[in-house]
Amino acid sequence: MSKTPVQFSLNGSPAAVFVDDAQNLLDVLRRGVGDLSPKYGCGQGTCGSCTVLIDGEPHLSCLTLAETVEGRAVETTNGLAEGPQLHALQEAFMENFAAQCGYCTPGMLMAAKALLDRTPRPSREEVIEAISGNICRCTGYEPIIDAILAASGQPTRRTG
Amino acid sequence: MVTITTVETLQDAAANKGQGTAFLGGGTLLMRGVNYGDQNVSRIVRLRQPESLAGVSSEGERVRLGACATMATILKSADVAFLHAVARAVGGPAIRNMATVGGNVFAPHPYGDFAVALLALDAKLRMSDGSELELERLLAARETETRLIESVSAMRPAGDDFRFLKVTRVKPRGASVLSIAAWLPRRAGRISGARVAFGAMAPTPVRTPAVEAALEGVSLDQNGIDRALQSVANDLNPPDDSLASGWYRKEVAPVHLKRLLLGQGTR
Amino acid sequence: MTVHKGRGFACINYPIGMNLGGDPSQALVHSTPDGKFMVSLSSIDLGQGMKSVTRQIAAETLGVPVSDVYVDTADSDTGPHCMGSFASRGTHRVGNAVIRAATEARKALLEAAAEELEVNASDLDTDGQGNIHVKGAPSRTITVADTAIAAQFKQGRTLSGRGIFLIPPSDVDPDTGEMTPVSCFAHAALVVDLEVDDETGEVTVREINSAYEVGRALNPRLVEQQLIGGAWMGVSHALYETTEPYYPDRSHAPTDFNAYLMPGPGEVVDHNIAVLERPAEDAPFGGKGPGEMCANPVLPAIANAVYNAVGVRCDTLPITPEKVLRRLIANGGARPQGVR
Amino acid sequence: MSSVEFRKDLFNDERDDNLQEIGKPTRRQDILGHVTGRSPYYDDHLFDGLLHMRCVRSPHHHARIRSIDTGMAERMPGVIRVVLARDVPNNLNTLLSLINFGKDEEKLIQDTKVAYIGEPVAAIIAETDRQARDACAAVKVDYEVLNHVLDPEEALSSDAPVVNEIYPNNTFDYHDLYDHQKLRFGDVEKGFAEADHIVEGEYQMSPIEQAPIETCGAIAAPETNDRYVCYTSTQALFFSLGTTAKLLNMASSRLHFIGGTVGGGFGGKVDSIVEPLSVLGAVLTGRPVKFMWDRTEEMQVGAPRGAERWRIKDGVARDGRILARAFTGFFDAGAYTRLSSYAIIKCSAHLPGPYTIPNVASNVFCVFTNRTPATAMRGFGITGVDFAIECHMDKVAETVGLNPIELRILNAYRDGDMKPHRRLAKNTALIECCQVAAQKSGWSIGADATRQSSLLGGGGARAEIPETVTDSAGRIGERRRAPVPTAPGEGAASKGHVRAGTQGIPIVAAAPQDEDMVIDPARTGYRGPSSTPTRIPDAAMTPDHSLQPAAAAAAPPPASRPGPVAPPSSSQYQQAKPPPPAAQMAPEPPAAQPPAVPQQPASQPYKPEKPFSRGVNRPGVSRFLSGSRRR
Questions:
Q1: Which residue of B67, C272, D150, D279 is most buried, as measured by CB atoms within 10 A?
Q2: Other chains touching B, judged by 3 or more CB pairs under 8 Å
Q3: Is the pTM of this model over 0.90?
C-alpha cells in the first residue's frame, strides 16, 4: 500500500497528510487530520452526514477520493465558529431545538452554510432543496428548516 | 486493495483502462463501491485536471457538454437552461456538485435520469478515441464499453418542445420510480419526429419507439396523445426493485406520460 | 387525474416502562465543593434527551437552578447500573431513581445548612436560585455554595445521594395471560387529512391534528421534539418504510437510503398538537415517556383516511402507491366515503 | 407550519404547575456539542494502531456449513486475525438471558448452520477496513443449501424446515407449556353469540428498519489494568456489558463500557452484537479493534422491527358496544429470538387496546423464519397491533354506522375498569384525547360523546373479572404432529374455567431503601386523581347520538361478588352535568385518597401455577447482573 501526500486548506488553516490509496476524504479528515465533526452515516452518499464544503460547495466527503482535494479549501463544522463566537446557524439550531441525537447536525449545518453563503435570505423551498441530500431520522425536518430560516434573519413559527 | 493512477489526458486514461480498472468521474458511484469493498475494482484512473473536460458550449442547434461537467456546472450555465430541471432532479446539492454527465450515462438502474434527457435530445457522444457514437448505441452495450466519453452533444430544443419529469417517492429528491424525457418538435401545432425516453423502466434509459410513432402528426391534447399512451405498455417491460414493482411502473407510466405531455405536472 | 381528500382517525394508549418490571435503574448525585451537583448515571442519551430531562429532574428535586447541575452518563465504571434506554423506561425509571438520589442529597444539603444557620433542617427550604432560607424568614439565608463549602471543609459531610427505582419482576400466567405489566399509560388521538391520487395511488398527507397525553411535559420543547419527529416517523412507517418491500419474499431488500424510503424535507406535514397532562402517580413529577407512542396512532389514522378518500382498505403496511392502485383497480375506481 | 398548545386547563386539578425547573423549555444539555460537531459518539475516540473488523456473511436463507477455508484470507495484506466460532469462548446466547427469559440459541459466529442471509460465519481483523473487506471476500465457505421458510404461518406447518434447532417447532416456548402466549378474559364465544355483528379483519406489517443515522458499532481496546474498554453505540450499557461478559466467558468486572452519546437508536442498538465482537477482537489481537456496521449491514443484518400479522374478530352490538374481541397474532421473529418473545408478552398485556371489552382472548405466536432476526423498535410490541386495532375500529364503526370517534369514546377504557390482564386501569385519558383531537380538527362529535370523561363511568361492574374460559390448545410440539388451529379457543380438546374474580397479587414498585430518598409529596407537583371530570370547554357538538344507554350497558353484567374498588356510580356517568368553562373551574383540593389498589378477594390470593421464569435454562437471578461472575 502506498501513501500519497496531500495538502489542502482545512477551515482556513493548512493541512498536510499522507493518505492511503483510495482513502476517502471523510476517513482522512477524521483519522488522518483528527477533525471528527463530519460523520459516517452510510459511505454511500445517501445520508449527507459527512457533508463538507470544498471550495465553498457542499460535497460528500465519503465519496470524495482524498487526493482530489489537493490544493483546495475544505470547510467542516469544526470551523464554523470563530473562536467562542458561534455561527448564526449554530445559534439558530440551538434556539430552535433543531437537533435530537445530533448525528446529522454537522452535515445539515454545512449544507445550510453553503446555501446561506450564496443566498442570504433563502425561501423555505430553497432551504428544503439545500438539505434534500441530508437525512434526519429524529426531528421530522421542520425544526431544522425553521432554524435555517431563523439563521437568515427570517421569521419562523416561533419568532414570526 | 485499490491503487490510484493519475493521468493528464483522457486518452492516457483510456490507455490505462483494463480488467479491474475504473475511471473516476464524480465518484458518486465508484467511491461507493470502493468503500464497500467492490472486488471488481482494483485500480482507479483519474484525471489530474477533470475541469478541462467540464466545458458547456453551444454548437449551432446543439449544445456540447464535457463528460466531466457536473450537474452543478449544468445548473450554472444559461446555455443549457432547458437541462436545468433535469440536472436539479439528480441527487441533493452535494451530489450535484460531484455527479458528472459522463458518469450519469453509466449509472445503473434506477439512476441515470440525466441520460434519459440526453437520449430524448438525440445525444451523440465523442469518445476518447475520437469517434462519435449515438448515446442509444452506447446504452445498448455499455457493460462492455471500454472507451471513455469525452463530451456529449445534444439537441437544443425550441420553446417548450422539451419536457422532463421524474417521479420519486421521496420529496423533493429521491431515486426514480420512473423518469420521462420527451422532445416534441412541432410543425404547425403537430408533432413531428418526437423522441421519448424513459428512465428506471429498463436496465438502462430507453426510447419508446411505439410511443414516438403514435405521436407523429398529432397535437398535444387528450385526443391527440391517446394512442401514444396506449402504446407505452408495448415499449416497456420494467423491472421490480425496492422502489416499485414492474407492474406498478408499467401501470403508471402512461399516467405520467399524459401529465408530461399535457403539462399537468407531478404530485 | 382526480385527487380525493380523506380524513382518518385513530387513538391509542401506550404502556410506560419495561413490561413486567424487573428493570432497575440507579442514580448517584454528589455536590462539588462549590455547591454544583453532578448526577452520575449509566443511562443512554440517544437523542431523546435523557441527559437534559434527568438534569431538570435533579435540579427540581434538589431545589437548585438547572445551570448548577450536570449529568454525566454511560461510563460503566462511574455510572451505576441502568437497564437501558428502551421501552419508554428512561424518563420513568431513571427519573424516579434520580429523584430518590437527589432527595437524599437535598436532605444532606439542608442538614448542612441547618448546622450553619443553627436551625432545624425541617425549617429550611430552597428558593431554586441557589439559596437556602428559613421558612417564613427569608432573611435568614445561606447560599448552596456556602453550604457545600461548609459541609466539605468544616463539617466533614458529603452532600450526596443514592437512588434506585425498581418494579420487581412479574410473572405471566400461561393460561389467562394475567400479569402486572407496566405502571402507567400515555395516550394519544389524532386526525389525519390527506389526498389520494386515483391514477397513481400516491398518498399525500396534508395535515395532522393531534392530542397527546404525556403525564407531564417535563420539558415542553423536548416533548415537542418527540411528538413532531415521532409523528413524522409514523407517516414514514405508514407510507414508506420496510426492509422487505415484497414481504414475506426477501427480494429487492433496500441497502441504502435511496432505496429505503422515508419522507424527505419536502414532505413536512403541518401538525397541530395539543398536549394534555394527566400526571401519573408513580412517574417522576407525573411525566410519562412520550418518545415511543407518538408514531403509533399515525399509521392506522392514515389507513383510515385512505379508505375515507377512495374506499380502499389497505390493511398491509406500508401503504404504497402500488397497493392503493391495485385495490383501486380491483374496486373499479375510487369510491369516496364522504366528507368528515 | 406546525403548532403546539399545552392544554393546561385539562386535568389541572391533578397537577401543580408551579415547579421551578420541571415544565421549563430548558435547552438540551448536549446541544452545544451537537452544533459544534464535538459531541463524543463512540467513533469519535481515536486510537493509535486501530484495527478494523468485518464479517463474512451467509449468502443463503438457510444452509449447512460444510467447511470454511480461511487460508487465503489469512495471508492477505494487513490481515491480523481471522475469528471463527471456535474463538468465541461461550458461543451461545439469547439476549434476554440477562432477565432469564428464553433459552440460549444464537451463536455470535456461526459454524454449523446459517439460518438467514447475512448471518456471520467468520470475522476478519485487519489494519484497514478495506483490507478486512478484501479478506472477507477471500474466505471460501462450502454450504449445503437447505429448504427455507419465510412466511410465519407456513413455518407453523408440520413439515416446515426447522429454522432454529433449539426451538424445533419454529415457535418460542412459552412457560414450558404452549407454543404461543395466551390471554383469556371472559368468554369470547359467548360474546360473539350475543353480538349483532361479527367484524373480522386481517392486518400485516412488514419489517421496518430503525435507521439511526449513526450505524451500530463499538471500539474495544485493552486497558492497562488487564481490563478492556469498549466505546459503544449501545442503547443499554449494562445489557451490552453483561452480554459481552457471558459470550466471552469473562468476569464483567474486567469490562469497562463507555457510551451514552448515541446517534439515534429507536430500538436498533440493544442487540449487543458489535460489543462482544469488538472486545473479542481486542482480546485476540491485544490491539484496539473497531467493529462498525456499514449502512447495508445496518439495513439488512441489523435486526428490524419484525413483521407482524394480526387477525381480529369482534362481536359487536348494534349500538356499537364491542362485546367480544379475539386476536390471533404472528410475530415474525426471524431466525433467532432476540426480543420478539418479550414483545409478545408486552403486546398481550396491551390487548384489546385502550377499550373496555367484557370478553377478550388472544393467541400470539413468536415464529421463527429464515430471515434477519427481529428486535425492538420505537413502539415495541405495540405499533403493529395498534395499526390492526385502530383500522379494525373503523370497520366496526362503519358496520354499525357510528362516527368513528364516538365509537372509540363509547368503548374507551376509564379509570377503575378491569383490563384483561387483570389489573385495574387508572390515570386514563383516552376520552379526553379523542375529544381534543376532534375539536382541533373540527370533526364534529355528538354532545354525549363530548360530555364523557375518563374519570366517570368506569369501575363498578366494569371492574369485575368475569368467569373465564380457558383451553390448552397449542401445547409445545403439538403442531409438529398435526395441524392445530391458531385462533383462540379453536381446536381445543377441552375447555377449562377460571372462576370470576380470580386475580393474583399486583406487583408494585420496590419501596425506597431509605426514607431519606422519599421526596416530599408536596414537591412532586402531583395532586392525585381528581373526582371531577376534566372538560373540553368548547368541543364541537352535533346532535346527540345518545351514547348514554349504550355506554352504560357496555359494562358486563354484575358478578355476584362486589367489585374491588368503589367506583363512581354509573348514574353519575349518565347524569354528568354540562361542562363548566374550564377557566372558572375551582381547583379541587388535593385528593387525599390513595391510588386505587385492588383488594384481594376473600379467598386465597391466586398464584399463577406456572411462573414466568419457567422455560429458562438457568432459573434465578442472572449471574451476569451482579457485576462479577459466580462459578
A1: D279
A2: A, C, D
A3: yes
Give the residue with greater pLDDT, D539 vs D93: D93
pLDDT band at C113 (very low <50, low <70, confident <90, very high): very high
Chain A nearest CA to C225, separation (Å) = 6
Mark residue C20 as left, alpha or beta (left: phi above 0; alpha: psi -120 to 50; beta: remaining).
Answer: left
CATH homologous superfamily of domain B162-261?
A: CO dehydrogenase flavoprotein, C-terminal domain (3.30.390.50)
Contact: C232, A46; criterion CB under 8 Å: no
User: Could you tell me if C216 and C299 lie in one domain?
Assistant: yes
Domain-embedded: residue C139: yes
Domain B51-155 sits in CATH at 3.30.465.10
Cβ-based contacts of B172 with chain A (< 8 Å):
128-129, 132
Contacts of B43 (CB under 8 A, 6+ apart): B2, B3, B4, B5, B16, B20, B21, B22
Identify the CATH number of the domain defined by range A3-79.
Answer: 3.10.20.30
| Domains in chain B: boundaries | 3-47, 51-155, 162-261
Whether the predicted interface score ipTM is above 0.85: yes
Torsion D434-D437-D440-D445 (CA) sign: negative
Cell output for D302: 441489523
pLDDT score for B234: 87
The minimal CB distance from A1 to the residues B1, B46, B173 is found for B1
Residue contacts between B and D (CB atoms, under 8 Å): 18
What is the least distance, in Å, from the CA of D368 to any CA of chain C?
Answer: 13
What is the signed CA dihedral for A118, A120, A122, A128, rounded to 10 degrees? 60
For the cut 70, the answer to whether the pLDDT of residue A160 exceeds it is no
* Residues D480-527 pLDDT 10s: 999 999 999 887 778 899 999 999 888 889 999 999 999 999 999 999
Between B and C, how many CB-CB pairs are < 8 A? 63
Q: What is the pLDDT of residues C45-97, one digit of tens each?
A: 999 999 999 999 999 999 999 999 999 999 999 999 999 888 788 889 999 99
Q: Which chains sit next to A, with 3 or more Cβ pairs under 8 A?
A: B, C, D
Q: Residue A142: which of C222, C264, C268 has the nearest Cβ?
A: C268
Please check whether residues C198 and C142 belong to one and the same domain. no
How near does any CA of chain A get to the CA of D36, in Å?
6
C-alpha cell at D401: 354506522
Q: Which pLDDT score, from 0 to 100, does residue B267 have?
A: 59
Domain D181-206+304-500+534-577 in CATH 3.40.50.2000: no
